[in-house]
Amino acid sequence: MSSTTTEPGKARACRNPLAKITADQLRPLWEGKISTDKIGAAFGVTGQAVRGKAKRLGLGKRSGRSRQFMSDEEFTRLWMAGVRSKDISRLGGYTHKNAVYRRRIILGLPPRTRGTETSRARTGGWKETITLEEYREQQLGEAMAAAARSSK
Fold first, then answer.
1. What residues contact 108, with CB distance under 8 A and at least 6 apart?
2. Cα(19)–Cα(149) distance, integer angstroms
3. Whole-model pTM above 0.70?
4. Are 75 and 85 contacting, i.e. CB atoms less than 8 angstroms apart?
5. Is the distance from CB of 41 to CB of 29 less than 8 angstroms?
6. What average pLDDT does range 134-145 have in this prediction?
7. What digits encode the pLDDT tens for the residues 20-56?
8. Segment 77-98 mean pLDDT
9. What angle do CA 98, 114, 139 make, to 5 degrees?
10. In the Cβ-directed half-sphere of 94, how many Cα atoms lie within 13 Å?
11. CB-CB neighbours of 36 under 10 Å
C-alpha cells in the first residue's frame, strides 16, 4: 500500500504500519521469544497481522517454546511419586497437561484415582498427588538420610 497525498506536499499516514517492514527488520523479533501479540502491539496491529506479514515475507513458522521433554525414566519417577500432572507438564515443557496423561498411557503407568472431598481441595481431586516442590523436598530428605547413613 503506497501512501497517497491529500494536499500537495503532505503525505497521508499509511494505514498499515507493517507495510514498509522488511524481512530483515522483522526477523530478529520473529526469531526471538517475544509473542506475536506483543510484537503487534508495538506496531499497533494484531498478532495475526504480524503472523500474516511474516508468512508473506517467507520467514516460516516460529519455533515456539523450547521443548524440554524429559526421559521416560524421569517421567516414570515423577508419575510414580505422585507429582501433579500440571507440574510434570510445566517441567517437561508440554503445552498442555493432557499430554502427560497420553504419555502415562504410552508408558503403561497406572492411572490415578479420585480422592475424597477433603483431599480434593488440596490435590485437585486426585489421590496420591503432591506438588513438585514436595517431591523435591522428599528427594532432598532421602539424599540427606543416605548421606548420614554412609557417613556412620
1. none
2. 69
3. no
4. no
5. no
6. 91
7. 888 888 888 888 778 888 888 888 899 899 889 988 9
8. 86
9. 75
10. 19
11. 20
Task: Tell me phi and psi for residue 2, to 5 degrees.
Answer: -95, 150
The cell 503487534 sits on which residue?
A: 40
**pLDDT of 76:** 92
Domain extents for the chain? 21-64, 72-151
The residue with cell 502491539 is 41
Gap between the Cα atoms of 91 and 83, Å rounded: 11
Using CA atoms, how far apart are residues 79 and 87, in angstroms rounded to an integer?
Answer: 10
Task: Label residue 132 exposed, middle or buried (CB < 10 Å: 0-12, 13-18, 19+).
Answer: middle
Q: How many residues does the chain have?
A: 152
DSSP string over the chain: ----EEETTEEPPPS-TTTT--HHHHHHHHHSS--HHHHHHHHTS-HHHHHHHHHHTT------SPP-PPPHHHHHHHHHHTB-HHHHHHHHT-SSTHHHHHHHHHHTPPPP-B--HHHHHHHTTBTT-B-HHHHHHHHHHHHHHHHHHHH-
For residue 26, give the nearest of 6, 71, 56 by alpha carbon.
56
Cell of 79: 508419575
